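user:
I keep going back and forth on a fold encoding question. Separate attempts, laid side by side, tell us more than any discussion would. Would you put together a sequence-and-structure record for a protein of your own picking? Write it directly below this note and I will take it from there.

assistant:
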Amino acid sequence: MEQTSDISAKPRRNGVSSWICGQPFSARFWLLPASALAGFVAWLLVVKLGDYPGFILPTPVAVWARFLRAASDGSLLRHTVVTLGEVLAGLGLGVSVASVLGYLLARSRTVERLLSPYIVASQAVPIVALAPLLVLWFGPGEFSKILICALIVFFPVLVNVVVGIRTVEEDLRDLMRSLRATRWQTFAMLELPAALPVLLGGLKIGATLSVIGAVVGEFVGADRGLGFLVNVARGQYDTALVFVAIFTLVLLALSLYGLVSLAERWLLAWRR
């Protein structure tokens, strides 16, 4: 009698993911540093072979030296703390409003028909076009930057909340009703756990977009922050400082994304 294949086996991965996951842990550990080193070597070769001046494309050594100067005098830390505060406040505000409104849209067709046209229409206007108005209305302080962050985070999180709540099967809702569960029990024990994977996916997107929102606001009008630092460095043709600020913004976005990923592993441990 022929042996049948094991249908419980894990699905095969294709392409790069299959190659990476098939490597031993030590190889995967060194993969990122090796690729970063290759990128810096390529960057150095482009500068040397193209003979670019420092104000057009500085070398990695010049950028590192400028980073050390900015870190030692405290200016980089001051601007980073300002931007990080705006990002966290804007992310919290945007996620909170999007979660509440998304739940109402997912549970009520009337609310959806009433508000959806306005929500979709608001996304037709680029945030870059709204940023000058928000700075003009609310001033160049931190609140306008927080509001810009919240607006740029709002829509992706809202969509994921709606999709996540609507993925809950109606049979499970009927089961909760047969057990006479309250609305809060249904939300806490069924809707939230079932929708959490999609919600966390939206939070990952929002975490990275919030950094963009803060920088856009600081570009328009600010006297501190990493976006302000980029503007100042650009005006002084200090291109190395521009690279320092950009790399710091990338590190902020990666850190926020990593924190959400860690929260996802902890909150969704039951799925494994």
Summary: Confidence is low (pLDDT under 50) at residues 1-21. The chain has eleven helices and no strands. Residues 22 and 28 are 9 Å apart (CA to CA).
